Amino acid sequence: MLPTFILLTLLSSSYGHILRMGDCPDVEVMRNFDMDKFLGKWFVLQKFRTMSNCMAEEITKDENGDYHISEFLVPLGVQIHQRGKVEFAKNEPKSAMRVDYPITTPLGSQNYWVLDTDYTSYAAVWSCQKILFGHRQSAQIMSRTSDLPKEKIRELRQKFESYGINEHDFSFIDQKKCESNDNKRSSINETNCTGCIKNSNFAMKVGPVRILTKRRR
Question: What are the Lipocalin/cytosolic fatty-acid binding domain coordinates in residue numbering (predicted)?
Fold first, then answer.
């Protein structure tokens, strides 16, 4: 029970969700979205109220044609890596997907809506999940590199603002010296993680150690 409590406490301050009353805001997702072009690594440059650094995502497609999103983040010196399966809803654009992460399973899968991307440099992603008496929401601005021009970041923040989403809820994520951690963020096929709290799609450990997860079969 104690590891679970510690884990949930860390996640609440690191994954960047904000609680709001009422229903989720209405947003417009990207049309003619091509998931295969969206594959690969993305650096998360800004996200709602997070304490994490070196946040990144990797979108992959397995041999069965299923898509997965792996998240890597470092809140308060704790390295966390989790992997979730992507689900596409019937009669909805491919950009309005859902992700089933192991840690958020008790709350159900969460949506992962791509509002805008050019596939090669930037992306704007929105998430909102209905909960008792309200909802929890999050937004993130991502890049293929560890930086984006200020003009593009401003443009993407204004897109969120146009849907009534407060752009001032964004936190800047430090990506300095994070390239040296690329081996940790990409080595998701290995299983060695001595002393970790982990299962087949999640791993966590305190300190400068490798965080590795095993692919779901």
Answer: 53-176
Residue with tokens 């800047």: 172
pTM of the model: 0.76
Q: What is the CATH number of domain 2-206?
A: 2.40.128.20
* Spatial separation of the C-alpha atoms in residues 173 and 51, rounded to whole Å: 8
Asked if residue 116 lies in contact with residue 139, where contact means CB atoms within 8 angstroms, the answer is no
Contact 8, 125 (CB under 8 A): no
> Are 197 and 3 in contact, with CB atoms under 8 Å apart?
yes
Mean pLDDT of the chain: 76
Surface-to-core class of residue 183, CB atoms within 10 Å of its CB (0-12 exposed, 13-18 middle, 19+ buried): exposed
